[in-house]
């Protein structure tokens, strides 16, 4: 059966026991939904890609060449189907290890969107007002500081420009998306 957003949320709870991983999946979902609206793409499809992209993380964190690919096995075992586009984007978000090349708007948006959540989250943690009042220009300054949130891939975030979206606009969209769920993510 074609997976629903409700079922995807259930699977995130089932397969991602670490609360931080659950939060990251939710952040990625809202960022991808916001990007889909901006780019006039399928919001449900993009939201599912964001929500499910790390479903296998706790099973593959020691075997990165399977990260993104193992999710397809999980979904099959759960009798859940996703579109080919979503399956490709999930596998390609870890292109460096899976060697599945990013090609589509969704592929680039997922890799950039899930990466930017880490940058935003790290910046929010150091601000007294957390996400409230965060500006894209301030986030861009943190982006340029390679020592800040050093594990966040600047290259993947910059790849958002390959689908015709300026980085400053991307930051603005992503911040607003995460602000919409501040109570859920503790910021």
UniProtKB/TrEMBL annotation:
The keyword Hydrolase applies. One of its GO terms (molecular function) is hydrolase activity. InterPro entries: HD_domain, HDIG_dom. Residues 23-98 form the HD domain. It comes from the Bacteria. Keywords: Hydrolase. NCBIfam families: HDIG. This is HD family phosphohydrolase.
